[in-house]
């Protein structure tokens, strides 16, 4: 056994669950204790400042410098009561995480000595260097500054000794360099468009909010074993390693009892979330070994997304304390389920109506149907934009694999609801509707709530499923910023609703009654969007063929999928609804393509190094042992006996030699392919070259290594096996942590069973 593996396993053997002491008092006492929420604002701000902030939140009115000074002062007093010494503008650049630069409150006083100061100016705006973040060529070299600006709608919070202020991040020339800026614009666009449509039904509606409930899937692995796998540390996934004899086939992990070490981690994570006002609620085991899920109660999209970003950060930190590494990658292990982040999305009016839930009366049901049908059309028309918004190097391993939504977009409504839509298309004829026809139709629509009440329809294979009062976008990846999907969905919905409203208005201007005009446009929309509705098994091969017949797109090629950010329909939505300007959209594409290139490049380099420095030498050592063995056999036996006894070993030596030679050649060719790709002048061509001529090497090299792993003596294999990194549960079966000896036995036992 290699030293690295030995120590990793030894450490694992000594792990016990950490003691977690909850804060004193009930959950409701400490919930939100670290958030500068409305209650604290009321306590710490003068009345006029409090009013100005709530107006800014509710109506988007600007905040004056004087008021900002008052707010900053109040924030500082509150933060100091928690022992805070620093503040930071917390923002979401186009990387895989958040960014923060901490500054102390400390300043030199006029009379000598130091004072603690936090002014409105510092609260409202800062100037980080934009050139150090992905900017897709927006930055001019002579002007590298960027600005962060306070997002009043998301409350400040405290982590450790630092006051964190959620901000947007833009370039000196005003272009967005983050996820939050376009997200806020998309939310404003859908608010306007949806309010306009609601007004057809109810004049009291003045605002529409989008909600998001994310479900975060993740893996936990022991820190020691993680540290012994350079591929996990550097790329977030295992680039080699055959799958375990037992993984998820017995279906014994999903909703299974949670191991004590993991429970301790979850408890601490939940406590920290609750202090930060993140309403996490659900935790359970997921399908794959050591895969878990965490989900909060839904909130408005902007806040929910800030919370998801914060949670991903907290997870990593708290996991370390518990000697775990958390894997947020979409596919850390080949052969078992990957991780997604379902985005549950709904629209809700300021009168308290969920627009994706049937109403209490026929009018409410019409409103519901209108929004439902517009979602169908939105997804149908914007399949490519939605796919582009969730496509990434990591997620591409999930999409189209047999445990995850396919790269084909479709919507699952359930049989009954589909039936109602079909009825509308039948009932609304070409001529003017009679009063009787309208009544029949409305009666049918009136039945929706009962119908939905007994639908227990659930379709786990649909990438965009209607689940009773919301849509669930299941194709999003576990490591992604939800904003990417939420920008696309809400902008596309705004665009669709605007078109719907324009069509209804046009008919009404031509003299048609409102109800009839709505029915007519609904009918057309239902018919036009029909190909996107699919009730069957989204993972099946037949669906791929059927989808192709329907003209739905199915793109697994990452750069090709990403290029749809700038196709005509996406431009109509993203530029047309003023979410991005042309420069911003192009820069986004460039950032995504470059990110893809870099990720594949890193994977390729890590795999190449591991193959040449770890795997090939190990194979040669083992081969020499076999050769030594052959020499011994020859000395011991007659040549006839020798021929019989040595045949299998010769075969193995031959096989190992072939694989070693193949690996060395593949790595050389892969390096050549990288060189060619790296020399291409345009980022688009580089991404395509990485997808088409570098990435295929990863699987080919892996295949040889995985065979060698099974052929070579486990004693000398240099890395922990994939199944060892996820065998935590087995080690924890007994309440006392197992001895090192027992663990080694377990490993050997498991090997014997393979
Ligand atoms: P599942 O069966 O898909 O696991 P859950 O009950 O765990 O469903 O809920 C998943 C997420 O959906 C939670 O975050 C929940 O708050 C959210 N959710 C529920 N209702 C809505 C809604 N109307 N809008 C948005 N999200 C919602
Ligand atoms: Mg779900």
List strands and helices in order, with pairings.
Blueprint: H1 3-13, H2 27-30, H3 38-44, H4 47-59, H5 65-80, E1 86-90, E2 103-104, E3 106-108, E4 114-116, H6 120-124, E5 125-126, E6 146-150, E7 157-159, E8 162-171, H7 180-199, E9 208-222, H8 223-227, H9 230-235, H10 260-275, E10 280-285, E11 291-296, E12 299-300, H11 301-321, E13 324-327, E14 341-349, H12 362-381, H13 383-390, E15 411-412, H14 415-427, H15 435-446, H16 448-454, E16 464-466, E17 471-473, H17 482-509, H18 514-528, H19 541-550, H20 558-563, H21 568-574, H22 582-636, H23 639-678, H24 683-711, H25 722-725, H26 728-731, H27 740-753
Parallel strand pairs: 1-8, 15-16
Antiparallel strand pairs: 1-2, 3-4, 5-6, 6-8, 7-8, 9-11, 9-12, 9-13, 9-14, 10-11, 14-17, 16-17
Helix pairs in contact: 1-27, 4-5, 7-17, 10-11, 12-15, 12-17, 12-18, 13-17, 14-15, 14-18, 17-18, 17-21, 22-23, 22-24, 23-24
Bound molecules: adenosine-5'-diphosphate (ADP) and magnesium ion (MG).
Largest sheet, in brief, is: 9 strands, mixed
Give the oligomer, counting copies of the same chain as homo and different chains as hetero. single chain
Helix amount: 40-55%
Strand content: 5-15%
Shape: globular
Number of helices: 27
Query: For the CA atoms, what is the radius of gyration?
Result: 29 Å
Contiguous uncertain segments of 5+ residues = 729-741, 750-754
Mean pLDDT: 89
Cofactors, ions and other ligands in the entry: adenosine-5'-diphosphate, magnesium ion
Distance N to C terminus:
18 Å
The tally of beta strands, per DSSP, is: 17
Structural class per helix/strand content? alpha+beta
């Amino acid at each position: 056994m290699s030293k690295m593996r030995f120590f990793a396993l030894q450490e694992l053997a000594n792990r016990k669950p950490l003691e977690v002491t909850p804060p004193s008092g009930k959950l409701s006492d400490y919930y939100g204790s670290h958030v500068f929420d409305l209650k604290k604002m009321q306590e710490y701000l003068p009345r006029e400042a409090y009013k100005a902030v709530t107006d800014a939140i509710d109506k988007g009115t600007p905040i004056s410098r004087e008021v900002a000074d008052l707010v900053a002062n109040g924030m500082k007093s509150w933060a100091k009561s928690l022992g805070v010494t620093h503040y930071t503008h917390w923002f979401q650049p186009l990387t895989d995480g958040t960014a923060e630069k901490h500054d102390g409150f400390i300043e030199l006083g006029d009379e000598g000595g130091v004072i603690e100061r936090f002014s409105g100016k510092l609260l409202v705006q800062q100037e980080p260097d934009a050139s150090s973040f992905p900017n897709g060529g927006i930055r001019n070299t002579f002007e590298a500054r960027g600005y962060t600006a306070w997002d009043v709608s998301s409350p400040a919070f405290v982590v450790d000794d630092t006051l964190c202020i959620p901000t947007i991040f833009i370039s000196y020339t005003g272009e967005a360099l983050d996820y939050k800026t376009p997200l806020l614009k998309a939310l404003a666009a859908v608010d306007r468009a949806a309010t306009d449509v609601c007004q057809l039904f109810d004049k009291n509606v003045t605002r529409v909010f989008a909600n998001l409930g994310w479900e975060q899937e993740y893996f936990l692995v022991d820190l020691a074993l993680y540290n012994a796998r350079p591929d996990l540390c550097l790329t977030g996934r295992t680039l080699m390693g055959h799958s375990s004899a037992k993984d998820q086939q017995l279906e014994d992990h999903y909703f299974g009892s949670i191991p004590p070490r993991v429970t301790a981690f979850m408890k601490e994570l939940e406590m920290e979330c609750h202090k930060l006002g993140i309403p996490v609620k659900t935790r359970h085991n997921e399908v794959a070994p050591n895969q878990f899920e965490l989900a909060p109660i839904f909130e408005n999209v902007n806040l929910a997304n800030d919370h998801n970003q914060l949670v991903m950060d907290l997870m990593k930190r708290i996991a370390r304390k518990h000697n775990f590494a958390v894997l947020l990658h979409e596919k850390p292990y080949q052969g078992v389920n990957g991780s997604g982040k379902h985005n549950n999305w709904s629209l809700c009016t300021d009168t308290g109506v969920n627009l994706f839930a049937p109403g209490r009366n026929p009018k409410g049901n019409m409103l519901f149907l209108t929004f439902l049908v517009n979602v169908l059309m939105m997804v149908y028309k914007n399949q490519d934009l939605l796919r582009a918004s969730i496509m990434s190097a990591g997620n591409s391993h999930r999409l189209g694999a047999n445990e995850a939504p396919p790269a084909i977009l479709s919507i699952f409504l359930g049989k009954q609801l589909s039936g109602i839509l079909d009825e509308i298309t039948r009932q609304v004829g070409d001529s003017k509707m009679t009063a009787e026809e309208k009544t029949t139709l409305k009666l049918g629509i009136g039945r929706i709530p009962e119908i939905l009440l007994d639908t227990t329809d659930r379709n786990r294979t649909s990438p965009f499923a209607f689940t009773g009062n919301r849509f669930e976008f299941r194709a999003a990846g576990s490591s992604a910023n939800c904003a990417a999907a939420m920008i696309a969905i809400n902008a596309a919905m705004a665009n669709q609703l605007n078109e719907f409203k324009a069509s209804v208005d046009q008919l009404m201007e031509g003299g048609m009654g409102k109800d009839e005009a709505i029915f007519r446009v609904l009918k057309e929309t239902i018919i036009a969007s029909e190909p996107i509705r699919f009730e069957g098994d989204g993972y099946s091969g037949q669906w791929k063929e059927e989808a192709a017949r329907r003209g739905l797109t199915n793109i697994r090629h990452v750069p090709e999928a990403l290029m749809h950010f700038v196709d005509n329909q996406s431009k109509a939505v993203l530029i047309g609804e003023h979410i991005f300007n042309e420069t911003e959209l192009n820069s986004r594409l460039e950032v995504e393509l470059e990110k893809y290139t870099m990720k594949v490049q890193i994977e390729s380099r890590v795999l190449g190094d591991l193959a040449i420095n770890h795997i090939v030498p190990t194979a040669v050592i083992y081969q020499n042992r076999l050769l030594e063995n052959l020499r011994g056999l020859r000395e011991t036996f007659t040549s006839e006996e020798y021929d019989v006894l040595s045949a299998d070993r010769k075969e193995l030596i031959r096989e190992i030699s072939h694989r070693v030679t193949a690996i060395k050649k593949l790595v050389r060719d892969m390096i050549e392919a990288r060189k060619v790709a790296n020399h291409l002048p345009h980022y688009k061509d580089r991404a395509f070259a990485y997808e088409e001529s570098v990435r295929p090497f990863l699987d080919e090299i892996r295949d040889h290594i995985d065979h060698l792993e099974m052929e070579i003596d486990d004693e000398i294999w240099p890395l922990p096996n994939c199944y060892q990194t996820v065998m935590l549960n087995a080690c924890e079966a007994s309440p006392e942590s197992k001895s090192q000896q027992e663990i080694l036995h377990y490993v050997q036992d498991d090997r014997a069973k393979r």
